[in-house]
Amino acid sequence: MSAQHGSFSLDLDFTVPRSEVFRGFADASLRRRWFRLPGGSATARHELDFRVGAGETARNVFVSGDTEEHLAYRSRFLDIVPDTRIVYVYEAEVDGSRRWISLVTVELADEPAGSRLTWTEQYTWLVPTGDGTQDAAHLRGGTRLLLNGLSTVVNPDRHHGLRVRS
């Protein structure tokens, strides 16, 4: 099967300055509170080196019934402009098979009530699930959950509107 390509964008509004949202990505203790792979906390591993050329790794074991999946995530930061932009590439593995690779651009902008995060992800599915029709929806949904977690960590007093652009 050939690789499948696509992209999507998500916008998330915050009532805190963009420097606080940026800190949610850059500060390892904050990042661990919202960025995690599915699975139990006892099996979770996470390392972050937030600088250009460095990256992040995460591993976990997800169990559903009698099925166990070993998940792995590796990223490399390509561009970091404090309080403004983060560009990175990551790969996702399930049971040792690289499933997809993505290029992500996170942009932060001032808004009258605080700040706005725009997440743009360009992905290539290498090993789709079945015919691949649900993979993009799964990726968008998982990203929404992650960003809701970021929102809870850096701006816990406010519910935020998350908009999706394809």
From TrEMBL:
It comes from the Bacteria. InterPro entries: ASHA1/2-like_C, START-like_dom_sf. SUPFAM superfamilies: Bet v1-like. Gene3D superfamilies: 3.30.530.20. Residues 16-151 form the Activator of Hsp90 ATPase homologue 1/2-like C-terminal domain. Pfam families: AHSA1. Belongs to the AHA1 family. This is Activator of Hsp90 ATPase homologue 1/2-like C-terminal domain-containing protein. It comes from Streptomyces argyrophylli.
